């Protein structure tokens, strides 16, 4: 087969609780995995003239088809197979389309197929098989299931016998709840004996033997068609006292409605995916050669690391899970790097990221003048867990947050201010204040409703005042990328404060507060002048006074996008030249302390240059990383720039930041 494209290939991705990937370049070269890397076995078979061929997963006694092609698109991963008797095309489509909210939030995926050569024999069938392991985590649990006859097709389903809905907030967790569905002309809930009968003879029977593993078997007999895979998690999130389902399920819709919607709208949904993909490919060509690879690697992963829902007031919530980090929900400094994707295609989703943070910021337990970090641990929005105190007394009992697994969640949001459950020294004040202001301004500039900013204007004004007081010369406080330790005078934090002040001017202007907008534009200019004096001539260091150091100054992006240009293009180009000079095979390090880097920030700094050749040299390192990293897992955003292996952080929403060069070229956040 051709050369490798990605470290792992998305097959069916829905949300953080259901995400299936292939970790081998040949689809039938190994077992499929959950986003965490845990094995979740699925199979694909073709019965042809009394033989069984395999195109998906490995199974003993099955003849593997030869894979001849692999393509990755925005919403699909496409394969071609052959043998002497026939050829087969298969597309795994996850229609997580930003801007199409019903489709994005409907928890259904397609597997399309077409036999392109060969006369179908009388015994022809094509099948998808799901192993019971999709119903539980590391420890085997009892599973139940069945089949539902529907109009023109059947839906097999199985689920953990004891459904522990939203019971575990551990980070790298497969759900212990929810029902998995698989549809075809025929569907069967059978044990291993029934599956073996089909593999040996093609015969389908309701065959169950106690003690054997159970499977869903879905079978089609037409030359072309599709299967549907769905996940009904029953409840999606707890949101400050409310139990919420995914956005699609409003007004009482059920998983049967979801399957019916995707069946009746199949042709239209696939057309929308393909139209989006064609336009994306054209736009990526404007960024540079092969940038489309990065966009396709990021698209489905970023969207499916969220859940789209709405609260009882009908307000949208777009809540990320901080995958492979600590499992937090709605983390501000995870939302911030991801927003270029959503500003491009549905800026109201950025408002939907901010809404929960605004709500928690007004609760008594959060009695700080700066913005919080998160809303809880997925799927529980029950109050920030990051930076909780670690004391052992009768009010904390050893701490309010535990990393033990499995874990549940404490209700922190309704505690009084006197609870004193947060350690101020472990917060990220400048980081999160700047993030909230910049995201809000960017959403407004991109076309989102500004009423949310008007409603929360007192918070925004309090946060910008924090930036004014502490932003120019930050004390020793945590920055989102301080993996090598935090330090005083961090220039990236100063730049974020500068752009946050600019953002507040943008917000004021949008709300008709002209005098305040002009005042803060003037404050931003004064801040920039002082900042440039402190930073000195030449390449900007990691921190004030640390000559000979550097760091990726990604926070400069929105200074350009908002049209302020308080750090002029000559400075940005000088920075880019330094990044190119320090580049390793897989990218430029985050800063001069360590060799690791971040894919999202590399794309942000790509967007800072107007030189197409420099831009391409910077992002080409990411393409090499995707094709060569030994870590065969979903797109890891934090990795070693010299070795290519992942440090940590896989399947995160932050890769939406890879769309920064596309956002820059679109002009969407420029002056109105």
Structural class, please?
alpha+beta
- Give the strand order of the largest sheet, numbering strands 1, 2, ... along the chain: 7-8-9-10-17-14-13-12
The number of E-state strands comes to 26
Tally of separate helices: 17
Structure report:
By secondary structure, the protein is an alpha+beta fold. The chain is 32% helix and 22% strand. It has 17 helices and 26 strands. The strands form six sheets. It has an eight-stranded antiparallel β-sheet. A six-stranded mixed β-sheet has the order 6-5-4-11-16-15, covered by helices on one side. Helix 8 (429-446) packs parallel to helix 11 (491-510) and helix 11 (491-510) packs antiparallel against helix 12 (514-535). It starts with 8 loop residues before the first strand and ends in a 6-residue tail after the last helix. The relative contact order is 0.10. The mean pLDDT is 94.
Write the layout of secondary structure elements.
Blueprint (H helix, E strand, L loop, with lengths): L8 E7 L2 E5 L9 E3 L7 E7 L2 E6 L6 E2 L1 E7 L3 E7 L4 E7 L7 H5 L2 E10 L7 E7 L11 E8 L2 E8 L18 E6 L1 E6 H10 L12 E7 L3 E9 L4 E3 L2 E3 L10 H10 L1 H22 L3 H14 L1 E5 L5 E5 L11 H14 L2 H14 L14 E2 L2 E2 L47 H18 L4 H5 L1 H14 L20 H20 L3 H22 L21 H5 L7 H13 L14 E3 H8 L5 H17 L7 E5 L5 E5 L9 H7 L6
Parallel strand pairs: 5-6, 18-23
Antiparallel strand pairs: 1-2, 2-3, 4-5, 4-11, 7-8, 8-9, 9-10, 10-17, 11-16, 12-13, 13-14, 14-17, 15-16, 18-19, 20-21, 22-23, 24-25, 25-26
Helix pairs in contact: 5-16, 6-7, 6-8, 6-17, 7-8, 8-10, 8-11, 10-11, 11-12, 15-16
């Amino acid at each position: 087969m051709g050369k490798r494209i990605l470290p792992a290939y998305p097959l069916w991705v829905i949300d953080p609780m259901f995400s299936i990937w292939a970790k081998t370049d040949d689809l039938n070269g190994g077992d499929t995995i959950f986003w965490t890397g845990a094995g979740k076995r699925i199979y694909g078979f073709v019965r042809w003239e009394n033989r069984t061929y395999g195109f998906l997963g490995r199974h003993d006694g099955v003849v593997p088809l030869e894979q001849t092609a692999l393509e990755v698109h925005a919403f699909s991963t496409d394969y071609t197979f052959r043998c002497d008797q026939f050829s087969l095309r298969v597309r795994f489509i996850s229609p997580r389309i930003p801007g199409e909210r019903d489709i994005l939030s409907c928890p259904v995926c397609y597997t399309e197929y077409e036999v392109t050569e060969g006369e179908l024999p009388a015994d022809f069938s094509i099948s998808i098989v799901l192993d019971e392991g999709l119903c539980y985590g590391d420890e085997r649990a009892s599973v139940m299931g069945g089949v539902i006859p529907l109009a023109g097709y059947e839906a097999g389903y199985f689920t953990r016998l004891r459904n522990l809905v939203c019971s575990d907030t551990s980070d790298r967790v497969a759900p212990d709840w929810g029902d998995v569905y698989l549809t075809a002309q025929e569907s069967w809930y059978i044990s291993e004996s029934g599956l073996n009968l089909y593999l040996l003879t093609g015969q389908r029977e309701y065959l169950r033997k106690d003690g054997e593993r159970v499977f869903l078997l879905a079978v089609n007999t037409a030359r072309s068609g599709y299967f549907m895979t769905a996940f009904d998690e029953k409840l999606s999130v707890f949101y400050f006292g409310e139990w919420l389902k995914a956005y699609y399920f409003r007004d009482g819709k059920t998983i049967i409605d979801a399957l019916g919607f995707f069946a009746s709208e199949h042709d239209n949904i696939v057309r929308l995916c393909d139209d989006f993909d064609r336009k994306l490919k054209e736009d990526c060509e404007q960024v540079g050669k092969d940038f489309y690879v990065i966009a396709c690697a990021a698209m489905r992963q970023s969207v499916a690391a969220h859940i789209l829902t709405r609260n009882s007031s009908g307000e949208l919530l777009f809540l990320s899970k901080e995958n492979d980090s600590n499992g937090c929900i709605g983390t501000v400094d995870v939302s911030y790097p991801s927003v270029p994707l959503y500003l491009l295609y549905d800026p109201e989703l950025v408002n939907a990221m901010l809404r929960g943070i605004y709500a928690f910021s007004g609760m008594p337990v959060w009695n700080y003048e700066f913005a919080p970090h998160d809303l809880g641990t997925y799927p529980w929005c029950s109050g920030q867990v990051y930076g909780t105190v670690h004391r052992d007394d009768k009010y904390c009992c050893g701490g309010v947050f535990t990393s033990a697994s499995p874990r549940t969640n404490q209700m922190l949001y309704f505690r009084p201010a006197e609870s004193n459950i947060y350690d101020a020294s472990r917060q990220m004040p400048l980081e999160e204040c700047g993030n909230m202001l910049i995201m809000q301004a960017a959403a407004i500039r991109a076309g989102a409703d500004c009423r949310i900013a008007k409603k929360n204007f007192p918070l925004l004004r309090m946060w910008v005042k924090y930036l004014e007081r502490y932003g120019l010369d930050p004390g020793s406080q945590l920055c989102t990328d301080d993996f090598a330790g935090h330090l005083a005078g961090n220039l990236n934090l100063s730049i974020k404060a500068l752009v946050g002040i600019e953002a507040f001017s943008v917000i004021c202007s949008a709300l008709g507060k002209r005098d305040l907008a002009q005042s803060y534009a003037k404050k931003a200019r004064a801040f920039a002048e002082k900042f440039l004096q402190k930073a000195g001539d030449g390449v900007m260091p990691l921190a004030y006074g640390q000559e000979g150091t550097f760091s990726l100054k990604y926070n400069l992006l929105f200074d350009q996008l908002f049209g302020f240009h308080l750090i002029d293009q000559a400075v940005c180009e000088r920075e880019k030249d330094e990044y190119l000079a320090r580049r390793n095979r897989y990218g430029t390090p985050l800063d001069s302390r360590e060799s690791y880097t971040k894919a999202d920030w590399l794309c942000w700094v790509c967007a800072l240059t107007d030189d197409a050749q420099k831009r391409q040299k910077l992002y080409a390192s990411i393409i090499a990383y995707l094709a060569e990293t030994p870590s065969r897992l979903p797109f890891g955003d934090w990795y070693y720039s010299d070795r290519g292996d992942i440090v940590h952080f896989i399947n995160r929403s932050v890769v939406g930041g890879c769309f920064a060069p596309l956002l820059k070229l679109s002009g969407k956040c420029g002056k109105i």
